[in-house]
Amino acid sequence: MNWQRVGDQRDVLGESLIWDDALNALFWVDIRAPALRRLDWSSGAITTRPMPSLVGSIALGRPGRLLVALGESIHCYDWDAGRLDPVAALPDSQRGLRFNDGRCDRQGRFWVGTMHNEIREPRGALFRLDPGGLTLVRSEVNIPNSLAWSPDGTRMYFADSPRHDIECCDYNTNSGHAGKPRVFARIAPPGFADGSAVDADGFLWNAEFNGGRVVRYAPDGRVDRVIPVPMPQPTCCGFGGPDLDCLFVTSTSQRLSQEELAARPLAGALIMLKPGVRGIVEPRWAGDAA
Prior knowledge:
The chain has 290 residues and is mainly β. It has one helix at 258-263; strands at 4-5, 14-20, 25-30, 35-40, 46-50, 55-60, 65-70, 73-78, 83-89, 98-104, 110-115, 124-130, 133-141, 144-149, 155-160, 165-172, 177-178, 182-186, 192-198, 204-209, 213-217, 223-228, 234-240, 246-251, 271-273. It has a single domain (4-288), classed as 6 Propeller (Neuraminidase).
């Protein structure tokens, strides 16, 4: 595949790709730098903003603002002012955990999961952030990932990565209620599901960590396409560009020795290609209306 490297930065743990159609800019996070990054499409310039603690995921607010899941709390970040405004915090029962993958549903509700930063045990949870506050939806989560919704918003995807599968469930767009989960796709070890995106045709794209590939799944769970990537641990994929026809993929360089980094020059890189399909405009968090 004709992958192109975007910029020369090397993320420790790149994640949470989102395209802002109002600004013609791509945003993503480096969880462990920790930092926010922004690619401006017209100039190709990449800007990095350090964050005060591990940053798990982001969502769009109104243009120029991001919803940021930061450590144990969620904030709105004003890009121009460089200011973090608190929005919500984890309940006491979740103290000591951190936010990980998060995404807005089509109605602008922000769903975000938590995990323990070091111990791989099901101590985390899945939350929904409405304009009125944070609601616990699911407990006993190891590593939350792969949050995504079908184009019409009536199907929700989620992965607890160490379980080696992707789930889907029916989703009530009016209430924000997620139905009983069912297995959508199984992933053979050592690979597991990391960040996902849905294209305009309703197919799910997933970055397969440890698998060195991005997989496109049909709505029935069938593997439609497998695209190798030039790094062993891709972390997230998402569509962007003015026509939403570019597929971006983040990756990680953490826990690699200097020798391994030299042998894997694209570990931690952001890459891009045009796969022949288009993505969907990213929803904005409903709690940050203009």
